[in-house]
Amino acid sequence: MGAQGPSSDISFTVFKGNKSGEIAASTASVPSLTADQVLVSITVSGLCGTDLHYKKSGIALGHEGAGIVKATGPAVRNLKVGDHVGWGYQHDSCGQCDQCLRGFETFCPERHLYGSHEKHQGSIGTGAVWREAFLFRIPEGMSDEDAAPLMCGGATVFNALEMYQTDPTARVGIVGVGGLGHLAIQFASKMGCDTVVFSGTDSKKDEAMKLGANAFFAMKDVKPNKLDIGRKVDVLLVTTSAQPDWKVYLPLMAPNAKIFPLSVSEDDLNLPYMPLLLSGISIQGSLVAPRWVHKKMLEFAALHNIKPMNNTFEMNEDGVNKAFETLENGKMRYRGILVTPKESRL
Questions:
Q1: Using only C-alpha atoms, what is the Rg of the chain?
Q2: Fewer Cβ within 10 Å of end Cβ, the chain: N or C?
């Protein structure tokens, strides 16, 4: 397909933080579209906990984008103007290394991840230019509002379950009912897994059960070896921002169980040594989904009507700052989305 749309510099609004933590609108410009570049008019951006880590870095913020194709470069083959697409945490890789050729481009040594490359554009803004190769067509019937938070939050939890081949007969434990946890409950339960949720108190029990949990345990003040959960856990997804008390959780794990620490923490991972050996428990690192898993995640979510629970803000300076404040204060229940008014779209 030949190039469509603008033939000169393309400009749009992005939102950047600074050292003081204030977020302001800025104009971004890119040259004419080349190769497989696609100009996307952003309709919705999700807000992820990872965005808080880059609030003071000065980069264009956001990595859970959804929008409409406005123009395409000369090497674009499949997307066309008007298509609804999304993108996530990764936006490029070399395409030639062993990891790329095996479908694990998330581990490519030349990968471009959110915040790791000076040319990165965010999803919090009115537009962006991305490679077609790292854009995902949003399934028919799925709204951009529902799709945006799946681009990172959904991909993160689905990848842990799908890439590492969780059996549908497994008992899957989910620590935390938040931005990642409430999606993990839905994915695990729709996969047929016996899904058990661990949270601090009973305040989120009803929601967790409605989302698909089979059992719920409040963990505040629980002592090691004092909690009987019945059948032990085969797979544990840790979605809380702080690490759990591993002395409490390791006795709940089945032999050969696998633990996925999914949230971002700068602390070292410290676990009791002998329980790990005696039960053959493994700790599995897992990043966001490579493209083949990401595509399956969107298809699975559309088929099973998996949706995020969203708090909506307007895509302007006031809305962006309010959304970040809500997330920082722990009051987001459970995903924040920023919606671009129609009059502000490209």
A1: 20
A2: N
Which stretch of DSSP H or E encloses residue 338? strand 335-339
Residue in 218, 184, 179, 77 with CA at minimum distance from that of residue 135: 77
pLDDT, tens digit, 9 for 90 and up, residues 36-90: 999 999 999 999 999 999 999 899 999 999 999 999 999 999 999 999 999 999 9
Dihedral sign for Cα atoms in the order 315, 316, 320, 326: negative
Of the candidate CATH numbers 3.40.50.720, 3.40.50.1820, 3.65.10.10, 3.40.50.300, the domain formed by 165-283 belongs to 3.40.50.720
Question: What is the rounded distance in angstroms from the CA atom of residue 191 to the CA atom of residue 176?
Answer: 19
Question: pTM of the prediction?
Answer: 0.95
Q: Report yes or no: 187 and 293 within 8 Å, Cβ to Cβ.
A: no
| E strand map for 183-294 | 194-199, 215-218, 233-238, 253-261, 282-283
User: Quick one: 10-152+289-344 is in which CATH superfamily?
Assistant: Medium-chain alcohol dehydrogenases, catalytic domain (3.90.180.10)
CB–CB of 40/137 below 8 Å?
A: no
